[in-house]
Amino acid sequence: MSIWTELADVDFRQAYVDAGGIRTRSLQAGPEDGEHVVFLHGTTGHLEAFVRNIEPHAQRYRCHAIDMLGHGYTDKPDKPGEIPAYVEHLLAYLDAVGAEKAHLVGESLGGWVAAWTASEHPERVASLQLLCMGGTKVNPEVMQRLKTSTTAASLEDDVELTRKRLRLLWAEWDEALGDELTEVRYDIYHRPEFQRNLHNLLALQETETRERNLLRPDRMAKIAAPTLVVWGNKNPFGDVPEAHAIADAISGAQLEIFPECGHWPQHEQAERYNPLSLKFLAEVS
């Protein structure tokens, strides 16, 4: 199993899109007249986080998995990665591809960005899927773990540190695909432009910055889009009560807890996640 075999049955393309002056890498698939579904990854991640989800979704929907602002192979402007900047970039991407409205699927940081977008720009969001979403708490221990592991993986020339950073996301490591994803992430982390920008990507792991970007209950209460919250019961960055608090804060939100699952439910348990997502999308489309 590899990234390529996951995408072998998909007519897709990698495209670089000018999103408000930011050269943005995206993987696009599915009917051009289909409703848009945009997949957003986590902190210092990249679009390959969704390779197990594209094929089933692209049978009906116009899918976009993107490298978010400053991440992956997308441009890296020298400014702190705060949520409004990510939202601005996402909206510019939607404008560039002609998507007046989109279903947003966000994992971790991606969920944070998606939820903020829905609270500020409800007219652009058809639905939300929040997968182990971050941004509702300040947890110094978790923030320090993320900073330390990512910095080591990026600045030291040891692929095992990159593998260790990626393994944080999984409850059960998949050797074949995990090793390939490690190679992709190692290449990204060791590009000079990524290393120069690392402090900006980790800005939300600083207490003061995180505080002013928090997804507080009053903001989540503004979200009107149909919402699905998905969580792994072994998520190392947030316990199950956090998922319940998120679902309770968003009116009508549906909550699903995946057993024996870490921080990447869409990837670790794609066989469970994909039917759930497609059922949700069919009900709200």
UniProtKB/TrEMBL annotation:
GO terms for cellular component: membrane. GO terms for molecular function: monoacylglycerol lipase activity. The keyword Acetylation does not apply. Gene3D superfamilies: alpha/beta hydrolase. InterPro entries: AB_hydrolase_1, AB_hydrolase_fold, AB_hydrolase_sf. Keywords: Hydrolase. It holds the Pfam family Abhydrolase_1. Signal peptide: none annotated. SUPFAM superfamilies: alpha/beta-Hydrolases. GO terms for biological process: acylglycerol catabolic process. It comes from the Bacteria. The keyword Hydrolase applies. This is Alpha/beta fold hydrolase. It comes from Prauserella cavernicola. The lineage of its organism: Bacteria, Bacillati, Actinomycetota, Actinomycetes, Pseudonocardiales.
